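Q: Flagellar assembly factor FliW, please. Structure only.
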Amino acid sequence: MIIETLSWGKLEVHEEQLYHFSKGIPGFEEDTDFALVAMEDSAFWVLQSTENKNLSFLLGDPFAFYPDYEFELPSAEAEELGIASQVIVRCIITLKEKVEESTINLLAPIVLNPEELKGKQVVLHKAPYHTKHSLFQEQPVIDGKDGG
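A: Structure for Flagellar assembly factor FliW:
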């Protein structure tokens, strides 16, 4: 399948890269189908809407940045995603002009079922995480200091 992207123009993606988010992503509920595209030779992925070339998210493996990161996926969420055994967890990264100020959202990971090709952004209500953890240190960025 060929999809349109803002950054790479036309991009060929394979069926196993296409994930359905039944409720979209919070704030972008109208877009429900995304391609998970690995960025070569890096620990990053792009979650690109297949319907809107202007909508994409930079994702990272939270365990690469925070090896002690853990959470319990609520059973309702696991059931909704049809998770039996395999699961992929990625988190949205916000790049800043000064790279050292970039953040990762550990509070609301993107949970993917690679067997059913379903995905969802799950908000962890009883977790010690924030939406703006530094990529380079184990502390959240103080609101106001990150420029927005």
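A: Brief note, in case it's useful. The chain has one domain: 2-134.
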